[in-house]
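Task: sequence design from structure.
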């Protein structure tokens, strides 16, 4: 069985890799162009992800960063690694984790951790309690919750 799979995958092309600098990133097409450091011709249309339709791991390299490019055949190259990134995304079905210089995004379907945390803090700041003398009228430590809310806003996307 193993030999059969290997025979089907064999294209006759030698698989090899190159190191180069990113000269352009095309997010719409999910590709980048790379200038190899060995002086060979520019590699156009390097795929940023093996299968962008089904999630997985996606690295977006910074312009001019060093990257590793793997050729799976003579016409098709895929980004294997990057020295510097603008973002990294990991997605499994409808659950997504993304990192950028702006912060972290943790999302499941339409819900994000940031929205959940901000909604929780907003509800806490509106809390009232019934006491022996009637309902409370003001949250005494509201400033602490506002400070925590601002920390979440800058930490999460």
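Answer:
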């Amino acid at each position: 069985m193993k030999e059969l799979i290997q025979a089907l995958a064999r294209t006759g092309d030698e698989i090899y890799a190159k190191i180069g600098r990113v000269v352009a990133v095309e997010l719409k097409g999910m590709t980048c162009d790379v200038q190899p450091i060995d002086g060979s011709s520019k590699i156009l249309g390097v795929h940023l992800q093996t299968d962008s339709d089904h999630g997985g791991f996606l690295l977006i390299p910074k312009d001019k960063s060093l990257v590793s490019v793997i050729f799976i055949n003579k016409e098709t190259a895929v980004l294997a690694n990057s020295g510097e990134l603008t973002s990294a995304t990991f997605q499994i079905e409808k659950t997504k984790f993304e990192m950028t210089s702006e912060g972290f995004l943790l999302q499941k379907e339409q819900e994000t951790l940031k929205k959940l945390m901000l909604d929780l803090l907003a509800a806490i700041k509106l809390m009232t309690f019934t006491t022996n003398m009637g309902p409370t009228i003001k949250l005494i430590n509201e400033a602490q919750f506002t400070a925590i809310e601002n920390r979440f806003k800058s930490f999460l996307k």
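The longest helix spans residues 142-155.
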